[in-house]
Write a structure and sequence with these properties.
The structure is a homodimer.
Chain A: E1 19-24, E2 36-41, E3 46-51, H1 59-70, E4 76-83, H2 89-107, E5 114-121, H3 128-133, H4 135-140, H5 147-153, E6 162-170, E7 173-182, E8 195-200, H6 206-218, E9 224-225, E10 235-240, H7 255-277, E11 285-293, H8 296-308, H9 310-317, H10 324-331, E12 344-347, E13 350-354, E14 357-358, H11 364-371, E15 375-381, E16 387-394, H12 398-405
Parallel strand pairs in A: 4-5, 8-10, 9-16, 11-15
Antiparallel strand pairs in A: 1-2, 2-4, 3-10, 6-7, 7-8, 11-16, 12-13, 12-15, 13-14
Helix pairs in contact in A: 1-2, 6-7, 8-10
């Protein structure tokens, strides 16, 4: 059961002018489900991408990087579920490029103007024949008002589609930002990938768009974790179609850029949090905030150590205020000169530990009260400086083991 | 159920001359179980220690470091289960020192000649009154032939005691090496600690003993992982009583030192492997060997990334040759310039992946055959150099979640 997550209402997913979406059933792995999505982008659209840091990155990720670097301007996006085309060597690259070529031909652009995305099983050949056979259907389905179908088509074992949208005003013009994502809890059978697409009709210079993509990812998709397994295919794409008629944003140091960035971060965080809320077996949504660090990096290290500790995660699942486990994770996070006597720990408003020991005023029933909630903020204060960072995660339940121990067939 | 582990036979746990062990029931947390162990060391004994790298190290670890640095010669060891005396601030240090003082007084040594060890719940006050009240009973129980009782007394939720022993010949003299350990899977309620004690009656200079302790730990206790949670209390002690009558080993670059080191590593590996075999919920014992690295450190990084991946661990639990999960873990291990096209993967003798992709000759039924075994070796070849490293771990099962999600009371 996802944690406080509901399916999006299609009527509040606003179309982004200049971006049409088409869906098809290619039967990549299973028949009778939407598993192919194309996005067709009008000329003048700019695209920026952030991809997995996994050195075993999948073939489509390698092709995306190559095509973005090529600089011809991206005009089409091709997404399939059911097969990740990862761990497939040079043959995998050839298959990804072949599918780009086939789509390019149908929409009258160059192959290097197509970005491919795949999510699903690892180490199996991508069935390009079935994908290509469904391209005509997907292209002819293309329309601007199709975001909910796109959110459904990129799902693997997500239990709910993930999409959100908003309108805002920039320089007197109404601008739309709409996005979709799919789950990161690596799933039977390795339906591994986090995919996120956020599009706006705002006009924004390509170098500003690129400069926005990284901080947006770093405050959203790069700050969530289900199980610490960085997928081979994780990708986030930021798309600007240049249709809103706003005065084009040509510098990141403008009010307009900041307004747009805030909106895009808001959308991306909602999509990222939705992934955690729908994490495999999740029963709780947990924010881990680390304050008082010397720099953001050490705060992030500590936050991830807590977020990845199976002991901490099972304690959340059990609603057990077994808070020594959190302190232990702080201790092994890799901050070498950490002074334990300066550390404070809070669970929401409850002050659990102070100066590295149990807070004398702490009562177990207060910790218990917070641990029973479905949304919890853990706050660690390191007492070393003024930097902060936050990551979001979920608990580790029996269902996580059941889902991931299930045989692939 | 532990994986291919049986309880040790007391008659094959050879006494170490000069080291007497006494046991008592102090009722630290639960009544009616052996939870207190003292080891009394004859004058002339040397002791070397390796302790947790957790910056949130427990009070007894801090006191051990202080007393070892003091250099008066260690004459007594005091171990309690039921309470880890961790996350207890300055009061915890005071309580650990108080218990040392009380034992020192009873055996006629200085407080700084006593090393304290605790394992059990975190963030609760050590009940020193109950410990001190049982010291007389423990001291009067002290005898050389008491290793099996010691192995039992240091257990927390270990399902079996862990002990092993051997005799060897050094310079024509018979030397004994005997050791005990307790589990590292951090356990309800945070029975966190890995403890290991290996004693020999060999004569060995203190600086050589100290030089031995680190490589022994690095090839045994420092290469196992259940869930990646480094405890606040992990400790390994190497003890030499100087009673065997061998010509004293005064250099690490001698045949005698190497013979002794091999024996001690063998004992320590058996004890470390026993911890993994008895890991919480373990159903499989898995060796992860990484070859072809530029240095040991990067091999270790890759091995631990695999060993800590919940996805890999659940696949082992399911006997599912879902081997893309292993490649994905290799990819995010943090070897930044890794070239995926040079990587090979083996499961025992089965060549699964080559040049970063599926080995064309690999058949799923071969992977399946190996995955069904209770003991499995994963071998990754990085193709970058000649360094190797191995870590040992277990799978992640439903029982792990059950054990760790159980409420503490």
């Amino acid at each position: 059961m996802p944690v406080n997550l509901v399916a999006p209402d299609g009527q509040f997913l606003f179309p982004v002018a200049g971006l049409r979406i088409g869906i098809a059933q290619a039967g990549v792995r299973k028949v009778g489900r939407k598993d192919l999505c194309v996005m067709l982008l009008d000329e003048g659209t700019h695209v920026a991408g952030v991809f997995t840091q996994n050195r075993f990155c999948a073939a489509p990720v390698q092709v995306c990087r190559e095509h973005l670097a090529d600089g011809q301007g991206i005009r089409a996006i091709l997404i399939n579920t059911g097969n990740a085309n990862a761990g497939t060597g040079s043959d995998g690259i050839a298959r990804a490029k072949f599918s780009c070529r086939e789509l390019a031909q149908r929409v009258g652009v160059n192959p290097a103007q197509v970005l491919p995305f795949s999510t699903g099983v690892i180490m199996e050949s991508l069935p390009v024949d079935r994908i290509v056979a469904s391209l005509d259907a997907a292209v002819s389905d293309a329309k601007e008002d199709n975001w909910l179908n796109a959110a459904q088509a990129i799902m693997t074992t997500d239990t709910l589609p993930k999409a959100t949208s908003r309108k805002l005003s920039i320089g007197g013009r109404t601008v739309t930002v709409t996005g979709i994502s799919k789950g990161a809890g690596m799933i039977r059978p390795n339906m591994a990938t986090m995919l996120g697409y956020v599009a706006t009709d705002a006009c924004i210079a390509p170098e500003v768009l690129q400069a926005l993509a990284r901080p947006v990812a770093d405050q959203s998709f790069n700050r969530i974790t289900i199980d610490g397994d960085t997928s081979t295919n994780d990708s986030f794409l930021l798309i600007a179609t240049n249709k809103a008629g706003n005065a084009c944003i040509t510098s990141i140091d403008t009010d307009e850029a900041r307004i747009l960035q805030d909106a895009v971060i808001g959308i991306a965080q909602t999509l990222a949090h939705a992934i955690v809320r729908d994490g495999e077996g999740a029963t709780k949504f947990i924010a881990i905030r680390v304050d008082g660090g010397r720099d953001t990096m050490e705060c992030q290290k500590v936050a991830y150590a807590i977020a990845h500790s199976p002991l901490v995660k099972t304690a959340f699942f059990a609603s057990d205020p077994n808070l020594g486990r959190i302190l232990a994770a702080v201790g092994y996070a890799g901050v070498d000169d950490l002074d334990q006597t300066r550390i404070d720990l809070f669970l929401d408003d409850v002050h659990v530990a102070t100066a590295g020991g149990r807070n004398p005023a702490y009562r177990e029933e207060d910790g218990q009260r917070v641990m029973k909630q479905s949304e919890i903020t853990v706050r660690v204060v390191l007492g070393r400086g003024t930097a902060s960072d936050t990551v979001w995660t979920c608990d580790l339940s029996h269902d996580y083991v059941t889902i991931n121990a299930d045989y692939r067939s």
